[in-house]
Design goal:
With 334 residues, this protein is of the alpha+beta class. Helix content is 30%, strand content 24%. It has a nine-stranded mixed β-sheet with strand order 5-4-6-7-1-8-15-14-13, sandwiched between helices. Strands 2-3 form a two-stranded antiparallel ribbon. α7 crosses α8.
Length: 334
C-alpha cells in the first residue's frame, strides 16, 4: 500500500519583525549583513497571547478553505509536531481536534521534535495508512520558538520565525511518499536546548551571562551552539542524502528538486556545495519567513508547488535539534 501527500497549507502570525527593526536594537548588525549571511529579510512573530495551538488551528482551517474537496469528516487521525506546546497536559492534538470540529472517533497525539519533525511526521502518517489504521491523516507542525528566545539574543532572533503548517496524507494525492532514512544522536542534546521548564529543572535558574560579543547564555532561554550545530550538519546531512537515495534505489542525478530544512542561507549553501547539488535544483524559501523549525519543509513544498516545481523526484531532508535527522523522496505528478 502507498501513502501520498494530498494537500499542504500554512499560516504565519500577523506580527512581522524586519531586519530594519532588529538593526535598531542591535546597531552592530547591518540590514545587508543579516540578509547576506542568514538569508532572511523578515520573520513573523506570534503575539504574546498567541500559542502554537492557535497557529495550528488556523493552519488546519486554512487547509480546508484552500482544498474544499477535503472534508473534515474524512480526517481520522491528527498528529501535531511541536516543541512549544500550550500545556504539559492535555495533549495539544486533542484540543486541535475539538477546535477544528473533527470527529471524536479519531486518533490524535503530539510528538516533540524540531527541524526533522516534518519528515518524521510523514513517516508516522505513512505507517498509519499502510498499516490500515487510518485513511486520512492530518499532520500539523506548529512552533513559536520566539517565546524561547532572550530579547538580547541577536543571533537567534535574526534566524527564527513562527509558523504552522497542515498537511493531509492519504491513499491518493499528488506526491507518493517513498522510503525513509532516519537518525538520532542524543550526544548533541545540549548544543540546542532550553534547559528549564521541564521536570528536571522546573523552576527558572535566572543564571543569564553574556559572552565577549554580548550574546546572552541562560538555562531559561534557547541556547544554540552555532559551531557544534554546523559541524553536526556538515557530517550528518551528506550521509543522510546518500542513505535516502540508497533506500529509494535511485541516484542524485535522478532527483529533480532538493527541499532541505531551511536553517539559514550560509549553512544551506555550504551543504549544497559539499553534496555537489546544482543550484537550480536546490530550493530556498526563507527570505520572508525565517527558520520556522518543523514548518520549513512544508512551507517550502507549498511555495514550490505554486511555482510549478513539484515534478518528478523531490528529496526532503530535515536535521537539527536532538540531534535528529530524516530524509525521504516524494514522487510527484502534476
Amino acid at each position: 500500500m502507498k501513502a501520498y501527500i494530498k494537500a499542504i497549507s500554512y499560516i504565519l502570525p500577523e506580527n512581522i519583525l524586519t531586519n530594519d527593526e532588529l538593526v535598531k536594537e542591535f546597531p552592530e548588525w547591518s540590514v545587508n549583513k543579516i540578509a547576506d549571511k542568514i538569508g532572511v529579510n523578515q520573520r513573523h512573530i506570534c503575539a504574546e497571547n498567541e500559542t502554537a495551538v492557535d497557529l495550528a488551528i488556523k493552519a488546519g482551517e486554512k487547509l480546508f478553505l484552500e482544498y474544499p474537496d477535503i472534508h473534515k469528516e474524512e480526517i481520522d487521525f491528527v498528529i501535531l509536531c511541536t516543541q512549544s506546546p500550550d500545556y504539559f497536559l492535555p495533549t495539544s492534538a486533542c484540543i486541535i481536534q475539538d477546535k477544528l470540529h473533527l470527529r471524536t472517533n479519531i486518533g490524535a497525539f503530539d510528538f516533540n521534535l524540531g527541524c526533522s519533525g516534518y519528515v518524521y511526521g510523514l513517516s508516522i502518517a505513512k505507517g498509519l495508512i499502510c498499516g490500515g489504521i487510518a485513511e486520512n491523516v492530518m499532520l500539523i507542525t506548529s512552533e513559536t520558538y520566539s517565546k524561547h528566545l532572550h530579547t538580547r539574543d541577536k543571533g537567534n532572533r535574526t534566524i527564527f520565525g513562527d509558523a504552522a503548517s497542515a498537511t493531509v496524507i492519504s491513499k491518493s494525492g499528488f506526491a507518493d511518499i517513498g522510503n525513509f532514512s532516519l537518525g538520532t544522536d542524543g550526544r548533541g542534546a545540549e548544543n540546542l536546548i532550553v534547559k528549564t521548564g521541564g521536570f528536571k529543572y522546573r523552576n527558572t535558574k535566572n543564571d543569564i551571562s553574556f559572552d565577549e560579543n554580548n550574546n546572552p547564555k541562560s538555562s531559561d532561554f534557547l541556547f544554540m551552539s552555532g559551531t557544534e550545530i554546523f559541524n553536526f550538519t556538515m557530517e550528518a546531512v551528506p550521509l543522510l542524502v546518500k542513505d535516502t537515495l540508497l533506500k529509494n534505489s535511485t541516484t542524485q542525478e535522478d532527483i529533480d528538486l532538493f527541499v532541505f530544512h531551511q536553517a539559514n542561507k550560509y549553512m544551506m549553501n555550504f551543504i549544497r556545495k559539499k553534496i555537489k547539488i546544482e543550484e537550480p535544483k536546490f530550493y530556498y524559501h526563507m527570505e520572508n519567513v525565517g527558520n520556522t523549525v518543523s514548518s520549513t519543509i512544508p512551507i517550502a513544498l507549498y511555495e514550490a508547488q505554486k511555482e510549478g516545481l513539484l515534478m518528478g523526484n523531490i528529496l526532503l531532508a530535515g536535521f537539527g535539534v536532538g540531534y535528529s535527522w530524516g530524509g525521504t523522496i516524494l514522487n510527484c505528478e502534476q
